[in-house]
Amino acid sequence: MIARISIRVVAWAVLAYLMLPLVVILGSSLTATEFLAFPPQGITLRWYQQMLHDQSYLAAFSTSTMLALAATAASLLLTVPASLVLARYEFRGKAALTAVLMAPLTLPHIVLGAALLQFGGYFGLTRSFLSLLIGHTIIVAPFVLRSVLSMMTPEQRALEEASSDLGANPWTTFFLVILPRIRPGIVTGSIFAFISSWINVELSIFNTTADLNTIPVKLFNYVQYTIDPTIAAVSGATILVAVLAIVILDLTIGLDMLSDRR
């Protein structure tokens, strides 16, 4: 009994420690002062209104959202077939190919950003949405690949063979047997991919312009010259969007269902 209570106390303490920065950010975004202050000195939504009336922030939010969605979709189209090949076939160079596909997890993103800037210059792709999309797809694809590969179990292989023995063609087997089984990995990998793309600064900063800016780069440039509660309001809006996305995911798919299938 004492051990169980101690574990719960430690767990709640860790959770409170992790939530504290979020509370500070949200509290600072509501302060009535012209500077960051916590606890907030007065309560106001002025800084959120100022953010919503600033077209540069709205454009940055739009760019970050479209970029993260596009990079996540592109990584799914590339890594789901790749994971099937890596899990189902043995061929020379398989280990090397897996290492190459996972390499962006270990390489510094600032190095990838500089390399993409130099490489894109040969094709006229520098500082464009396409160059950002290519770079973000590279850095988020390993998250989807690892999540989907973890779902490729021997038991699933047996189900695929049974489906083929019963006369199903490869496409039917994929959509009715494989896809439902790997869905938790796809959803989990997509969440990590979207978040990683959304918060990326190091790679994005090499390929953004004044008219093509992501919200993390916008904040990075903003804090170099001004520090006011607008920064906290933008961060608070990002936190609220993330929480809303998790709530929608739980209502539509069910996070408990994902954990049970894993």
TrEMBL record:
Keywords: Cell inner membrane, Cell membrane, Membrane, Transmembrane, Transmembrane helix, Transport. The chain crosses the membrane at residues 12-38, 58-87, 99-123, 129-149, 230-253. GO terms for biological process: transmembrane transport. CDD domains: TM_PBP2. It is found in: Cell inner membrane; Cell membrane. GO terms for cellular component: plasma membrane. Pfam families: BPD_transp_1 (PF00528). It comes from the Bacteria. Residues 61-252 form the ABC transmembrane type-1 domain. Its main location: membrane. The keyword Cell membrane applies. It is a multi-pass membrane protein. Belongs to the binding-protein-dependent transport system permease family. This is Polyamine ABC transporter permease. It comes from Pandoraea pneumonica.
